[in-house]
Amino acid sequence: MSASNINAEKQRRFRERQRQKGNKEVRGYVSPKGMHCYKELSEKSGWTDGELLNNALRITYAAYRCGQIKLLNEWLKSNDC
């Protein structure tokens, strides 16, 4: 079996495990709880998938640059996100 076939088989098994866990692929695998938050954000903001990802990255980067990653994580946990 070639290296590319081995890698394809690993990817197939990974995708199958994610589906069995109930995760859905959006731009990666998302848990059911994460999918609920994603849908809620999408409905409230009217943003597309790409806009949600872009804005999430901007917020995360801004928190990183300001040394506020811990604060952002604590807020996300306390708001059940």
Automatic annotation (TrEMBL):
Protein name listed in UniProt: HNH endonuclease
Species per Swiss-Prot/TrEMBL record: Bowmanella yangjiangensis
Basic and acidic residues biased stretches: 17-27
UniProt-annotated stretches for the region Disordered: 1-29
